[in-house]
Design a protein that fits this description.
The structure is a homodimer. With about 260 residues, chain A is an alpha+beta fold. Chain A folds into two domains: about 5-155, Sandwich (Jelly Rolls); about 165-255, Winged helix-like DNA-binding domain superfamily/Winged helix DNA-binding domain (Arc Repressor Mutant, subunit A, Orthogonal Bundle). In chain A, about 40% of the residues lie in helices and about 20% in strands. Chain A contains nine helices and ten strands. Chain A has helices at about 10-20, 25-30, 35-45, 125-135, 135-160, 165-180, 195-205, 205-220, 235-240; strands at about 55-60, 65-70, 75-80, 85-90, 95-100, 110-115, 120-125, 190, 225, 230. Chain A has a four-stranded antiparallel sheet. In chain A, strands 5-2-7 form a three-stranded antiparallel sheet. In chain A, strands 8-10-9 form a three-stranded antiparallel sheet. In chain A, a hairpin with a 5-residue loop joins strand 3 and strand 4. In chain A, helix 6 packs across helix 9 and helix 7 (about 195-205) packs across helix 8. The two termini of chain A are about 25 Å apart. The first copy, chain A, binds a DNA duplex (30 and 30 nucleotides) through helix 8.
DNA sequence: CGTAATTTTGACGCGCGTCAAAGCTTGTGG
DNA sequence: CCACAAGCTTTGACGCGCGTCAAAATTACG
């Protein structure tokens, strides 16, 4: 898990490790890149020093230069309303990519902040773009990644728009579960990287409601939680609540998280 | 506004017209493509016969082969829940692109249906992809388009998740207004292409609530509406409701609609 | 012009937001 | 390592927005 600037030798090994451990898997694993391609991609990936809790990876309006892949820890992305209140747009776990929403305007429409100590890989966009031109498989993969993000956003959009607070919580817990599972962690027992109020902000409910939901879910034996530790006790019921028919299969595509 | 298959000659002129009148503007105008590039792009764009009201451009699960640009009319995209109920994901006006969400899986996660008689341009994706590799400006533009969609979805996501039904309606009406304006139509007076219940479905409120909202908005002098004809009478108040600080400026980027 | 679908209107109840205050964490300095 | 402060979480009380049911009015369409 070292993120030191490892200067030059063993480049392929470095990227392989980055792919597997931290999420470039999304860019290079699903496509057949040969060693030379992987080497090229590897050369543009920049390691970065760890970001402490509450530190910002970038802020709203910052110029866009790179996309980032979470290696360890977790990020939230957010916008600020004119009143200055934070509106959380998404949570980002290891293996997930942030910053794609900035390509359009050339600056970040959302800020990104660490929920806990977090390490990321920086992928300078211009170089990635240039490389994509030369490696069609990479271009395809980049487009797939963005496409996935568009649809999973769409999906979450209406998951949140039409459903009760109870259903929303079930949806998010299962989403996190699936995303942890993808990283090789237990899907039934994990630590929530975000606070209750961040969760409630994200889900568009009051913090008090979130608290009551957690109590209710526990009373009914659907989950057990102590602080941020969570275990899913009755996944079947949660699935019913969430109405998950699509995406039932664990993992097949680029990434499962919300964007 | 002719959409006949105009066979071969005047290709550049055809594309120019397509660009300006129907939305390939999003792919080719903002970048500096020279005539040869435009000519190449033009060659891959397929005209398509008009789609009648309630006809499907594609259905959920259909194989993905092309993206589509709305020329005239309007589309909705939707998913079906396991119960078979339709969940509308977005409305798509002239100049807007649909189908990008299918790149990832290679099949359409959302269906697309005409709200009224609609013409589209078909852009075969493989050829667009291949062309993007040769024309860096086109690749960039494609990425920008997808990036824009990711963010505007994010934005709408939380617009809908956290706000009252009243605010949601204001947001959608202003969004439509802006998108009509971009097409050179009046931003203050236009015809809603979708029914009240489609609007309510999209916004995640009950149809009855939508009806009451329209009445209330009229009583208060914010709008005037007769059937699907709508005119915005008090845009300032609507803007306040919607809380629009961002995106106040009419148009700068790829497209303003929801994805 | 008649039948079906959509829209409107009213009555009613509940989910969830709001306000207020009491625990409980987390972090900092002595 | 403890003490205190600031923030976060929980709990309760209460009211309103909006979903639901039901039925009338209007519109769409063959």
């Amino acid at each position: 898990m070292s993120d030191q600037p490892n200067p030059g030798e063993f480049r392929v090994a470095r990227l392989r490790s980055a792919c597997n451990d931290c999420g470039l898997v999304q860019l290079c694993l699903p496509v057949s890149l040969d060693s030379a391609d992987v080497d090229q991609l590897d050369q543009i990936v920049q390691p970065r020093r760890p970001i402490k809790r509450h530190e910002h990876l970038y802020r709203t309006g910052d110029g866009f230069g790179a996309i980032y892949v979470v290696r360890t820890g977790a990020l939230k992305t957010y916008t600020l309303s004119e009143g200055g209140e934070e509106q959380i747009m998404g949570f980002h776990l290891p293996g997930e990519v942030v910053g794609l929403d900035a390509i359009n305007e050339g600056s970040h429409p959302c800020g990104a902040q660490a929920l806990e100590t977090t390490t990321v890989c920086e992928v300078p966009f211009e170089r990635l773009e240039a490389l994509s031109t030369r490696i069609p498989g990479l271009q395809r993969q980049l487009l797939r990644l963005m496409s996935k993000e568009i649809f999973s956003d769409h999906e979450m959009l209406h998951a949140l728009a039409n459903r009760s607070a109870e259903e929303r919580l079930a949806i998010v817990l299962l989403s996190l579960s699936k995303r942890f599972a993808r990283r090789g962690l237990s899907p039934w027992r994990f630590r929530l990287p975000m606070s209750r109020s961040e969760l409630s902000n994200y889900l568009g409910v009051a913090p008090e409601t979130m608290s009551r939901l957690f109590r209710r879910f526990q009373e009914r034996g659907w989950i057990a939680s102590h602080g941020k530790e969570l275990s899913l006790e009755d996944v079947r019921t949660l699935r019913n609540l969430a109405g998950q028919s699509r995406n039932e299969t664990p993992d097949r595509d680029v990434h499962s998280g919300r964007g």
